[in-house]
Amino acid sequence: MNRPDGVTILQSSVALPDPHILSDAREGLNILAAVYDPLVRSTGPERFGPALAESWTLAPDARTWTFRLRAGVRFHDGAQLAAADVVATIERARSPELGGSYGTDGVFRSYVAGATVEAVDDQTMRIVTGEPSADLLDLLVALPIAPRGALDGLPDRAIGSGPFRVVEANGHEITMEAFAGGWHGEAGVRRLRWLAEPDHERRVDRLLAGEGDIATKVTPQGVRRLRDAPTARAVTASSTTCIIFLCNLHSGVCTDRRVRQALNHALDTPRLIDGLFDGAAERLHGPFTALHRAYDPASQPYTYDPALARKLLADAGYPDGIALTVDIPTTMPDEARDLARALTEQYPLAGIRVTIREHEDRIAYAYMVRDKRIGDLCLFDSSPPSTYRVLREKFHSGVRGPWWQGYANAEVDRLTDEARGIVDPEARARLFQRACTIARDDAPWVFLYAPHAAWGVSSRLDPWGPDPDGIIRFG
User: I need a surface site. Which of 180, 349, 375, 447 has the fewest CB within 10 A?
Assistant: First the structure.
């Protein structure tokens, strides 16, 4: 790959995130990955390799995790990595005083609130969870480690052990320089410059004008523009983000399984994918993508069949159809209004009348969903690459997580609980698949699609591409 002296990345936002607030927002994760390291790194969906931990073990009880740290690691402030830094980081991340992002307050804490976290010696640390937690790495991969002496300065004073250190940061631009002497070795790029450009098309304009080397979150229209561009190209990849409508199973018509199945049969999802994404999205067969361990390749998506939808509604006691109130945000996903329009056009063919309620404030919308104050449906995304997190936070009726909307199936709960105590990942995956099949048939969501992620990349960086987890890295 061509290695220029500096690389400029154009993103919709470039604010320094708090590294310990759980978030799946890829643009923030790009910045964190340049500055910090977790204990383990992602080598693919739900697969992990060494990072600050060179090795680890999980005891047969699926509760006792022991991590051996990499020797000789220095932070940007010169401090040496020690087990006490990892302990202090986890204590900060699970503190009740730490907030959240778009409703994620307390999510990390809910997994490790009762855990014992200790330094065995300078190079060894141990986590003993209160309950079996065979999927704990799903969380630790997203937990950047900072030196204990620098935690009080977060997030504005960002100090990690990553391949780049922050030189200057404001709300519009972040400048980083390669961290000399870091454990990563030579980064190959001396400087990273992150520029905020909220407008999707302007990011592509600026890339083509030579003002940037990478543009994130490129739209299908932007991908078309880049196909014949002489100085840049589009890079696309599948993602674990599921665009869905959550069904309100607390009250209303969606408490009936047949109604929820009818809602899935009444929507022409392939037509949506072709119209909105030029086909650049994967149709969901259930609550997980093909990149999740719970995915069953033998599963089938709901067929588009308005007549069957009408029959299911009649069987549920609604021979004259139903009326739905549907909540949507105006952004995240950006195609929200297009999806609302599709509902109002397609659902009446199955006898479903739709009233749309728009919400401009996306943060308030997230908390409305978290507080279970939705209409019959609400548009949302499910972005964790972790199968266990989705099952626990969104489906488990005993946990009643932040995005759970009343779904209850004792077998799904049992399979999820059993899986967390199984050390063997393949055996765990088989239980997850069974839970996924049941949830698919119960239809607690209207399953839509997983859009492809897309970047615009200058020809100066050929043949650069993002890592398997979709993160921009130059370390």
Answer: 180
Kindly state the tokens that stand for 107: 């999510």
Across 291-327, b (16+ Cβ under 10 Å) vs e yields: bbbbbbeebebbebbbebbbbbbeebebeebbebebb
Cα distance from N-terminal residue to C-terminal residue, the chain: 14
DSSP 210-245: TS-SEE-S--HHHHHHHHT-SSEEEEEE--S-EEEE
Q: What is the pTM of this model?
A: 0.95
What CATH number is given to the structural domain containing 304? 3.10.105.10
- Where in 373-419 does DSSP place strands (E)? 377-382
3-state SS class at 1: coil
Mean pLDDT per 10-residue segment, the chain (475 residues): 81 97 94 98 91 98 98 97 98 95 92 96 98 97 97 97 97 96 90 97 98 97 96 96 98 98 98 96 96 92 98 98 98 96 98 98 96 98 92 97 97 98 96 97 98 97 91 90
Do 390 and 278 share a structural domain?
yes
CA angle (124, 129, 134) in 5-degree steps? 90
Neighbours of 354 (CB within 10 A): 19
Domain, as residue range, for 419: 242-451
